[in-house]
Design brief:
This protein is α+β, with helices and mostly antiparallel strands. It has two helices and three strands; from the N terminus they run H-E-E-E-H.
Length: about 140
Amino acid sequence: MPDEGGRIDFRALAQRAQQLQGTVANVQEDVQAIEATGYGADGMIAATVSGEGRIVELRIDPSVIDPDDPQTLCERIIAAIDGAQDMVHERRTEVVAGMTNSLNGILNGLRAPETGPTVVPRVPNRGNRSRFPGGG
């Protein structure tokens, strides 16, 4: 981000980098804090999934357990888990979209105007004892 003289303001650049780091850390915390519950068998089965994709709770009403038909129970449990994972995915997408918008704002602040100056590195001349060309 150039200043009025066309020089890069490294202090502002460092502040933007800290903002970026904070934004990413916040997103990671937000994603980890997400939990969603999906239901199967008309709400008789509930599965809660974390933002990391782990099943953190599973509740099954005993009335849906048929010892003669375990396959149906399995399908209902899977449906509940799938529903919870779909909700977690949607919430993750929302959180990441918010971060992307925030990052775009930070990055836009770093971009020089198209007609503005370009950054040209200054490399010291090995034969000169001065740190920068021109003795500066």
